Amino acid sequence: VCALGQCEQLVATDRHSAWPAQVQRLPKVGGLADAHIERIVALRPTLVLLGPRSRAAARLQELGVPVLMLEARNHAAVRRMLFTLGEVLGTPAVQVAALVAQIQTLVDEAPSLGALQKTLTQAYGGLDSDQLVKLMAAALALAELKGMDAARAEA
Hints:
By secondary structure, the protein is mainly alpha-helical. Helix content is about 50%, strand content about 5%.
């Protein structure tokens, strides 16, 4: 969401989301297995974004809360997810395409997840928050593309 330039649309995050810094001040509404349904409903979101393993989707939908399930298991799915999310959030397609291209470039150029993490760490001080958000999104996408087991082994 933030990598697409839409952080201001967020009304809450899961308990693990702490980056970029501006999301730290948002209410935390649980996690994958223990979403705080009442808290989510009380925030009156226009849409709740969930992963495929979330247990909250059915209950939220029963309560009339719109839900969008997103999954990014491979490169093609990451691209589809970003374009779907961009469309839903009102991000211009050209901006989404630029992010997708940036992610692809980083994936193509990174010999490993560890190398990409090192690059991010070294560059952190010289990047503005928008650039850093995009690079972190790329790192997460790379981890998804390589598979979490492979990413953990490289890190």
